[in-house]
Design a protein that fits this description.
Blueprint (H helix, E strand, L loop, with lengths): L1 H15 L32 E6 L9 E12 L5 E11 L8 E7 L11 H4 L4 H13 L3 E5 L15 H19 L8 E10 L1 H17 L4 E8 L5 H5 L13 H17 L11 H10 L4 H7 L19 H9 L10 E6 L7 H13 L4 E6 L3 H7 L1 H11 L3
Parallel strand pairs: 4-5, 4-6, 6-7, 7-8, 8-9
Antiparallel strand pairs: 1-2, 2-3, 3-5
């Protein structure tokens, strides 16, 4: 399969450049831009920093005193140690006692190819995301932002695999703290943190909320989460796909998302044999999904019908429904800290009804969720929700 070949090529190239092995304890003080990267077989503890480089200035969150891209150890879709990149944004000024409280930002869909990583090309919607993140920084939060495993590092990004992304988001907090321990005291990060995300990242933030305490351990002080435009029960929509279903072209955005899901799922679960039921059209666009970033990909998908991707229903594949539910499913129980979900009634990227149903299930299960709706579309909800999410998070930090 093409994705497996791509994986082996990337791992071999990655290992060939390894000249040093950096462990987890006390290593950050030696990191400089261009530090050689360790082989995947010799990675340190999750959350340990492997290398660092400056972020291009045009991608800085306004109000940052410094922005550094880290390569760090995390967990991939196979449960193995892997590498991810991500950025640490340090606010201007002096940190409060104990360090800057941390927002771990989970970004929305950018694509799953290496060139789509936000640390490489900036946010997918910089005009929306950078001012949004600046608002958090104005509230006195440092920001750490994972690119997610496979975006610019070996392997393919397992798009919408919540458990993997939760590891990436939590481990980015550890990596940011390790890196900041080498900085002046006034720039260091606190152990107190929250997850915040939009769209794909909204799902990542809420999934992270379920496992943040477990994945972070006693070294971190998880306070809560915010997710807007959160995709939920997407597995119920994906599993109906097959020849001629849906019978007409849906929006390019939704077609791109389904293409990314298919590419990520066949990478993470080759045992499903998805390639067996891909038509030439399906093979073409799923292959493109592995390299094309979302804006450019949507342009190529205008008029393309997902119903032309498959020669048989997805549910005809053995164990498909159970595997899909495990891959895409959102947790409904076990949350230990308050979390906020906001969604737009006019959202056409992540349909409101499925997310509202998920919020209702959370409420019925007695989970500590606050759910708010807004008369907005996908991006508009992110902006409007700040009137609620900023006070919500500030209360969790005693502000």
């Amino acid at each position: 399969m093409w994705t497996v070949t791509r994986w082996h090529r990337k791992v071999l190239a990655f290992a060939a450049c390894a000249a040093v092995v950096i462990g987890s304890a006390g290593a950050a003080g030696t990191l400089t831009a261009g530090t050689a990267i360790a082989s995947p077989a010799t990675l340190g503890d999750t959350g340990s920093v492997v290398s660092s480089r400056p972020l291009a200035s045009q991608f800085w969150v306004p109000g940052s005193a410094d922005a550094t891209v880290l390569t760090y150890v995390t967990t991939d879709a196979f449960g193995h140690k892997a590498l991810s990149t991500g950025t640490v944004f340090i606010p201007k000024g002096t940190a409060p006692p104990g360090g800057w409280p941390v927002v771990s930002w989970a970004h929305g869909t950018s694509g799953i190819g290496d060139d789509c990583a936000p640390s490489v090309r900036g946010p997918g919607l910089p005009e929306r995301d950078l001012p949004y993140l600046a608002r958090w920084m104005q509230q006195g939060y440092a920001i750490v932002a994972s690119d997610y495993a496979g975006l610019g590092t070996p392997g393919l990004h397992a798009y919408l695999d919540g458990r993997t992304t939760a590891h990436n988001v939590v481990h980015m907090v550890r990596a940011g703290r390790e890196f900041s321990s080498t900085l002046p005291v006034a720039q260091r990060l606190s152990r107190s943190w929250a997850a915040v995300g939009q769209s794909q990242g909204g799902g990542a933030a809420i999934y992270t909320a379920r496992y943040a305490t477990e994945f972070g351990g006693s070294a971190l002080d998880y306070r809560g989460a915010v997710g807007t435009g959160t995709p939920a029960y997407i597995e119920r929509l994906v599993q109906i796909a097959g020849p001629g279903v849906p019978p007409v072209a849906i929006t390019p955005s939704l077609t791109a998302y389904l293409s990314y899901i298919t590419a990520g799922l066949r990478y993470a679960h080759p045992e499903l044999g998805i390639d067996r039921i891909l038509t030439p059209t399906g093979r073409k666009y799923v292959a493109l999904a592995e390299t094309q970033c979302v804006g450019e990909f949507e342009e190529q998908l205008r008029g393309v019908s997902v119903g032309d991707y498959f020669s048989a229903p997805l549910t005809s594949l053995p164990k498909f429904s159970a595997t899909l539910a495990e891959y895409l499913g959102m947790p409904e129980k076990g949350f230990d800290k308050p979390f906020f979900m906001g969604h737009g009634l006019l959202d056409t990227d992540v349909p409101y009804p499925t997310t509202a149903a998920y919020a209702a299930a959370l409420t019925a299960n007695g989970q500590p969720v606050t759910f708010r709706t807004y008369p907005s579309d996908h991006s508009g909800t992110l902006v409007r929700s700040q009137a609620d999410t900023i006070p919500f998070l500030n209360r969790l930090f005693g502000k």
